[in-house]
């Protein structure tokens, strides 16, 4: 029976009334054998007073009365330790040990009780039962020498001998849970089935915590994770201090995806044993799976300190360091591991990945090839190497690796899909198309292959099929971002601007805040004639505010504030290849490369490389391929490079990294030449341009301050262009207007204005070049017809070779510019071929590109500011054929004296602008508008004549 509150007066005298009252209720329940109610009441007392001896004692007694003697032992021991002077506590604790099957521990306890002077019939009866239990135990288990022999064999690695010996003992002592447990352990270490044996061990010795841990391990091996968890928890109820049980419980939780519970278990194991290698390692694995990379790195470091030469642990640490963009530390660790295992293909692969992340393409390539040489035909390894080489980018090596993969697995979807990308970059569209088809057949859910097939179809000129393919991608995955971008881009390219804008907004409804989709929307809006400059600016500013919110507080810069030191100058672009931007930027780069006052860093954001890429790379002091890097990795790279001034060359065009600029990795940032408008970023300090195009009154449209150069970008014509011919109107007897703009700029209002000019000159004609080769320009014919212009007055020329393209200029007297997005490259090419351009100056930067050039050349007679003035000026300049002819022959000389044709002048202006920006930052001054002046040089006689020819208009 339970002790009552009057049994030990000394202990109950200080019990508060609320606890005393609860104790009385508990004892009443206990005496009435309402055991569950009694247990609940005792636990309520212990929740308030965990050292309440009587409640601990009675709860322990209650457990053995419910045939759960082992569960009561902690409470009986607690009561005994609180008041060892109470004899009943010795007796009850001894009874509990005996009932829990622990007669040896009971015998030791009773011996101590005798020493303390305890005696009486109850003690003597308990001693007699304990002696009988010890005798029975001795008869049921082998002698220590016999089990020691099993242990010796096991320790010597003779597992078969140990198994044979323990099985012989089990034949003599079949009820020994200890022996069954030993057999289970020996079977496990040999890789033999052990579950049934360990279940028997647990049945025979249900209170043996170590046996239960072994059973839990066997259940894990059998993928019975829920059963294993229950078994480990049973073991921990018996032995909470058993670190192995906590660790293995963590492993079971991890296996079923309960990572938070797993982490708690590993922490408890480490708390009990700080040098528990497996617990540190598994804790790191769980933290890495939850993307808690800092914590994972700490766990792996502790594990590696315990096992310094463990390659797998080092590999795990390398991976999380890479995820944290701590590539320098990861690279050092990789080299240290390679010193230990120089022939590990897996470590060479990691080394190559890290070097690629650091922008060291050549070292990455060497690492990948070394991994290939060591890896044999390991399929996952070959595929990983191929992907790494493709991203480096080393497409030739990647192609060879993908072909090796396909030789092993001919229908490998990923290999076919990635090989298709390489072939498409090489413009082998038919072969790429075939690989995409095979990839999709092998894996119908391969979403990237579906999308890349659409891109390929578009580049093959099969636009309708491409658009249908992109919509099919969205049926498979409505939130696939690249398909939304491709749909909007293709619609924009086809001149279906409002549909493109709607497609951008539809994508943003599914992917709110997506930066690339927002950039596409901004680009489309800049082409729209029904959107005001203020509305366009406001959309850009919203983009900038969203980027700023994502970036959060900007960290301070630690660059040395030395105004006259060498400036580390970085350029970020996805167009360091055979692209229009390269034609403008490369001449500047040639001059900057010679300067001793700047160190040039190129950050290239595209996988494709060509001869133009190689030429530009040779002019940078440091080159980084960043296309495969996440924004945070690029940020770390730029900061590690110590960039002082960082210049964006993309704006909101394809392959931009404006999200990186939003975090301001460099103390001074500027945007230049890639996009005719603001970035919208508060973190972008300046926009570099010229004062003829970017007017001071446009400041409200920009988040940046204006840094005026002598010219925005240089025009360097090809050396093999045809000569300027005579004015065609002399031969034809009528004026031929021309347009070389891309078709998506030929909007309905543009056609209406051009038609007004043609109606005012009934004999004039219009040639439109650069039309789609598939003839998809009927809408233009229809629009002209609606304006009363017959097809006989129009001439459509398809896209042609560069040589044919320039010879087409020989057919044109005056070019007509588009609006609200004016011509850029086409304007300069026309002027070089002797053809002035009639433009309608807009109120945005995109609408003033042609007006800015004409203003520099003093050709303001060709710049209109209204629809009516456009027609008036067109009639005026074409009415004076002699002057038009003279200007045609003078335009090349006129261009040659303008800053726009002087890359040396622009490069000097850029370097001066960068130095001025740097001076202000070093002085702690905010960005401001400023201009770099251009000093005129004496003109030749031909150049004077060209200037005068322009002035006559």
TrEMBL record:
Keywords: Glycosyltransferase, Repeat, TPR repeat, Transferase. GO terms for molecular function: protein O-acetylglucosaminyltransferase activity. This is protein O-GlcNAc transferase. It is an enzyme of class 2 (transferase). Pathway: Protein modification; protein glycosylation. Its EC number is 2.4.1.255. It comes from Pseudoduganella plicata. Pfam families: Glyco_transf_41, TPR_11, TPR_16, TPR_19, TPR_2. The keyword Repeat applies. The keyword Transferase applies.
